[in-house]
Amino acid sequence: MDIAKFASFITQAIIIGIPLLYGATGEMITEKSGNLNLGIPGIMYVGGISGVLGGYFWETYGDKTNGFMCILIPMICSLVASAAMAFIYSFLTITLRANQNVTGLVLTTFGMGLGSFIGGSLSTILDSGATVSLNATGAFFKTTLPFASKLGLFGKTFLSFGFLAYLAIIIAIVSAFILRKTRVGLNLKAVGENPATADAAGINVTRYKYAATCIGGAIAGLGGLYYVMDFIGGTWSNGGFGDRGWLAIAIVIFCLWKPDLGILGSVLFGGLYIVYMYIDDLPRASQEIFKMLPYLVTILVLILISVRKKRENQPPASLGVSYFREER
Amino acid sequence: MSHVAPHSEPLVRLSKRDVMPAWQGILVRIIGVLLGVALSSLFIVLVTDLNPAEVFTSLFDGCFGSPRRIWNLFQNTAILLCIALAVTPAYKMKFWNIGAEGQVLMGAAATAACMIYFGNGINQWLLIPIMVISSLFAGMVWGMIPAFFKAHFNTNETLFTLMMNYVATQIVAFLITYWENPKGSNSVGVINASTKAGWLPYLFDKQYLINIIIVVALTAVMYVYLKYSKHGYEISVVGESENTARYIGINVKKVILRTMALSGALCGLAGLLLVSGTTHTISTNTAGGRGFTAILVSWLAKFNPAVMMLTSFLIVFFERGAAQIATNFRMNESLADIITGIILFFIIGSEFFLNYKLNFRHKHKEEA
Lengths: 328, 368
Known about the structure:
The structure holds two protein chains of two kinds. Chain A has helices at 3-32, 40-61, 67-95, 100-126, 135-142, 152-158, 163-181, 183-193, 195-200, 205-231, 244-254, 259-274, 284-290, 293-308, and strands spanning 131-133, 235-237. Chain A has a single domain, classed as ABC transporter involved in vitamin B12 uptake, BtuC, CATH 1.10.3470. Chain A is mostly helical. Helix content of chain A is 72%, strand content 2%. Chain A has 14 helices and two strands; from the N terminus they run ααααβααααααβαααα. By secondary structure, chain B is mostly helical. Chain B has a domain at 79-306. In chain B, helix 4 (100-118) crosses helix 10, helix 4 (100-118) packs across helix 11 and helix 7 crosses helix 8 (230-240). At the A-B interface, helix 3, helix 4, helix 11, helix 13 and helix 14 of A face strand 1, helix 6, helix 11 and helix 13 of B.
């Protein structure tokens, strides 16, 4: 593989990895509070379509040339809608103590349904076949740093992304910092490890769980927005998001619930996701085997951490269990 | 710490409920479903301004409108029920197997492989037992891999089984590249369309009857197995508390492995019913999300196989009905997922009122 091809592979791995990073960071924050939100794929899907919906209304009724608003409106829509999705999950699992696995799976079904319904209806209204195209909005999202193209191969490989890509990395680093160094982060971890102890220590368990799940959901939703606006360039097609949501959950495990590691993990998974395209003359059958890699690697990590039993690498101890104060 | 006023009892205090009378439990659930239906109607009206009564007529029409639709309704219920029965022993043991999707796919792949490779050489009466054994075995292996690591290293089974789904999907995608017919179509097409080798027989000329009979029998067996057998008892004890199980001399590892072997094998059977008894083809979408929906069926029925007949029927009823609504009113077919989702949210939410009691703040006499 020559250097230019390798550089393009790295670039592709990064842009495939960015939506995964958003999803993984969101899910990590959520899981740190002890909530295993399997609704993340649905939330990311809704995050994407709500951005499209916002972008559609702004392009139709607003000022298409105002780049700031073209970005702001879809972003707000995406954040609000995905936080609302996460709120449904929170209300059911935290306040009503419903089973987390079941609730998450229903949320994914619901989110996929909602996204495809809106997407399908929108393309019917627009009479645009099976897709919805918002090229003006997409172009604003894809705007890169003005000097990136002048920096040669380095600029092309690492600096040629839209702002959402950098935001993903910033969010991951900030989350890692908050979780590791601040009181809020440590409290959150305490809630996820042992809510009863956290409760006894005066931490408001309910509030932390709600906040972590909703903020986590909103962040994950941005992954959907990045995918449709930047990666695809403003064109929505139903189901196009694929299994990226589940891959994001895989990264959470792969990166041992550490958002900063998540950056590397996402790029690695992005690379595994597309590596088959970069191997010359790979027959289609082997391509399918290559697509298995991210999941196999995750399983391997899962086994390794459980065999080694290193305490700081374990899932949050109360993960998947609803907390009821009076339970013994 | 904020200063706490002396009489600040919270407005609502939760407490665990003792067992609720059965009729109350049913009532709460019915109210849940009705609220869900009401909210979905509201959704339909808001986005389409159709008359909800009209819409719900077509819901029934979609399920019972013609003999063919009724057969489809019961066929889908049977398959969903089969997978739900399969995951139930594991769930009762608190082994969160969300890998049914993959286990079904592996069973389906094994069935399809037998049909393709042995379809022309072997007598039909020998072929079908071979198919049954290999599908059970494939599902079993897929279920036992995570179980082995759970039993020995306490590896998180929810995440493990979830990942196994996608490995299975890719294995099927891989096999399809070999089996595709015609070449380049990336789909397998109907297997043995002319010879019908390896197709489950049509009893009384009804294609789906045999599936339904198998699943009904399985329901009865599973009911007895869980309720009256020693295995069933061990599963319940392990589910309640592993420590108790160990204390009374149950080999927990053995129970986990055995139960997941059973669970996976039955998922494999569902794969057989799908490929050999229903579609006569295979795709990565053969399980079609049923592996996940089955978890709901089992959980909503409180792991009781008899009640699962009802819950699986209910879910398929809403899915198929909503699909019909979408067709009749030229809406997107994803409407079905939205309606099912909303109704399920309400059913899930109503569980809360079965398990917990709300104690509102009393006005104390001395305060008055």
